[in-house]
Amino acid sequence: IPYSSYSSFTVSYLSVFVFFFFLMIRRPPRSTLSSSSAASDVYKRQEYGGTDCRMEGAEEYENGQVTCAYTDDGAGMVYYPSGKAAAVVSVASPYQKRFYFYANDRDNTMIAAFDERMVGFAMEWKKGKADKKLILTTDGGKIVDAGGYIRQHWKWDQSRKNPGEILREALVMKLNREIKLTYEKIDKVEVQFSCEAFTHVLDVGLKVKRPGPSYLSQASTILSGPERGKKVLNPDRIKEIQAQGEAEALAKSQKISARTTRVSNQEILGVIEGHTEYFEEYKKRHKKP
Hints:
The chain contains 3 helices and 17 strands. The chain is α+β, with helices and mostly antiparallel strands. A 9-stranded antiparallel β-sheet has the order 3-4-5-6-7-8-9-10-11, covered by helices on one side. β1 (43-48) and β2 (51-56) form a beta hairpin. The protein is globular. The N and C termini lie far apart (61 Å).
């Protein structure tokens, strides 16, 4: 190939590469952002699919990058000003979520992840290295230092042999400059993301039952006679809960895969599907022998 032709080909190739590179790193379209009429300094509180989320501050960073985007069922992403993902939320059930958190480094390193059973980990990421870690399994939890030594461990069932000691005080971990995790107990865990004028808090604690009233919450109690103290259930409420359960079961059976969620945003869907595979492998590695 003549040098002049080779040079022209190289320039054309590089031009195409640069063009597609910038397409890949562009910020997500504004249409993915959940609507809000609140001013940038107004405190906002929303509930996405049963997961409590609190947002404070602007919808865009100073450079125009959107701060977060959610779908109607509660799946979504929180972004750094760089456009990289800071947090990804996927839907496991109508009342349970999976959470993934990332550092704002070149590799977008995963620094925390929790599934719907609160199986997962969180680590403090300092200067490109893992420091203190919190590891949670179905059996219990442990705190590990930067050297890999277990500093504290516990089993959820304290009646078992060698149960360890469950945390008595809140554990606060600064995962990176923007992300802070506060663990009080398994069903009370918050992750706060703060960057520029934007703050976002996610309740990632264990959710073991559907939110809202149950059978007994709307039952009456017999106050006299031989059946005193007995609960009398409301028939209409029983039918309502049964109908809700049947509808949820039908919706689940119609899904192509039990691990996927009905998400229209292709960017969010792609990330969720990739990390569903990651978590399946994670659970296999941490499964009890």
